[in-house]
Amino acid sequence: MEKALILQEICRLLSDDKRQDCIEFANKNYPFTEKLSQKRQYSKYQMCKVFLRDGFIDRYSGEKLLFPGLIKIMTIEFPHIFKYHRNWKMSETHMIYWELFPTIDHLLPVARSGKDTEENWITTSMIRNSAKSNWAIEEIGWKLYDKGNLNEWNGLIDYFINLTDKNVNYTEDKYVMDWKRALLRAMNEINRE
């Protein structure tokens, strides 16, 4: 039943002074389910596994995403172009971080009874992760795109590995090297499967 029609029926029952019927009808057809909020933090390794599994494709748009370590290299090399603010302040952070930086989202939000497990994690951009928030994709008119194929698009991880192998300056950046270690570990695990 459409949600607006559920409210129409509640209003009809309320108009007929049937408050208890309203409560029962609302609880049956449009209940409130309280969920405890919990902070979720994923390791770079966990994120790399999901990004590789999904082929660096934004599962909400089908668009290509980039490996996070490579985006940081762009900021190191071109700080006045690919600006970054540590709190992602939009007025001081290049849109590459919002549009092409992959994140993990829960396909079915935890706040809506989704599980915080790898089966419910998908790759999306930061901007779509923020826009989706705690909505189910059906509620906002989105669809789930197929996973990408790493042979067709891999988030430019080959360039990332090549650049970090040949430029010692990148090895001094903890963020870049943490992403590299996580990526190599995830790639080794996938190759063993």
Can you put this structure into words, describing what you see?
This protein is mainly α. It has two domains: 1-32; 44-192, no CATH class. 46% of the residues lie in helices and 5% in strands. It has nine helices and two strands. It has helices at residues 3-15, 19-29, 44-53, 68-77, 96-99, 126-132, 157-166, 168-171, 174-192, and strands at residues 102-106, 121-125. The protein has a two-stranded antiparallel ribbon. Helix 4 packs antiparallel against helix 9 (174-192). The model has no long low-confidence stretch (mean pLDDT 91).
Low-pLDDT ranges: none
Distance between the termini: 45 Å
Structural class: mainly alpha
| Separate helix tally | 9
Number of strands: 2
Strand content: 5-15%
Gross morphology: elongated
In N-to-C order, the SSE pattern is HHHHHEEHHHH
Offer a concise description of the structure.
It is built from nine helices and two strands; from the N terminus they run αααααββαααα. It folds into two domains: 1-32; 44-192, no CATH class.
Question: What is the topology?
Answer:
Elements: H1 3-15, H2 19-29, H3 44-53, H4 68-77, H5 96-99, E1 102-106, E2 121-125, H6 126-132, H7 157-166, H8 168-171, H9 174-192
Antiparallel strand pairs: 1-2
